[in-house]
Amino acid sequence: MTRLVIADDQGMVRAGFAALLSAQSDLEVVGQAADGAEAVRLALALVPDVVLMDVRMPVMNGIDATAAIAAAGIPTRVLMLTTFDIDDYVFQALQAGASGFLLKDALPAELVDAVRVVAAGEGLLSPRLTRLVIEQFARGAGSGQASAASPDVSDARPELAELTQRENEILVLVAQGLTNGEIARSLFLAEQTVKTHVSRIFTKLGLRDRAQAVILAYERGLVRPGA
């Protein structure tokens, strides 16, 4: 059973999400928070598998709450809710430790699937939102600027030298927002083979999920904005 906490300052939104998610046989809503501080308190007390976190909330916003949960060292993962009018927060939330994003206009089935994906340990970052991260780097919003020159994997970060040529190739494709299936088709590999490579990449680099892989690749210059 996947245990969830829903954090949103709008009561009707929380109730709607709770009703939808609680109706699933494998999901259980164990807490609801009206602000970021309460979300952190519930996460520490209940240690849910996933916190569904709104970005804009009173007392403490969703980004600061996400950072606090990540800093606590608990296994709880955060799925952020975002809308197109707050796209600038996407990169900040990734850096804070969010494992994925869901647009607020998503269909109910997409919400359920997103929660399951994040709970299973995968990062959820659609190509559309990946492009937002790229644009942030293009505007210089990233904390580490992408290199203007062709990236040298061994110079970018010591751990990257441990990757094989194939793993480096797959990491770049992950950073571009491709799914395992799309990478498999692009490289003419079996999808399970790609999944194995991705798992090894995350282990070697100490990454939690695909969201962190996107951040690392752009910060270290493995992929350049506009490339």
UniProtKB/TrEMBL annotation:
What molecular function terms (GO) are annotated for this protein? DNA binding
Q: Which domain of life is it from?
A: Bacteria
Q: Which SUPFAM superfamilies match?
A: C-terminal effector domain of the bipartite response regulators, CheY-like
All copies of domain Response regulatory, residue ranges: 3-119
Q: Name one GO biological process term.
A: regulation of DNA-templated transcription
Q: Where is the HTH luxR-type domain?
A: 156-221
Against PROSITE patterns, the record matches this protein to:
HTH_LUXR_1, HTH_LUXR_2, RESPONSE_REGULATORY
Q: Which residues carry this modification: 4-aspartylphosphate?
A: 54
Q: Does the keyword Isomerase apply?
A: no
List keywords of the entry alphabetically: DNA-binding, Phosphoprotein, Transcription, Transcription regulation
PANTHER family from the UniProt entry: TRANSCRIPTIONAL REGULATORY PROTEIN NARL-RELATED (PTHR43214:SF24), TWO-COMPONENT RESPONSE REGULATOR (PTHR43214)
**Name the record gives this protein:** DNA-binding response regulator
Record the organism.
Gryllotalpicola protaetiae
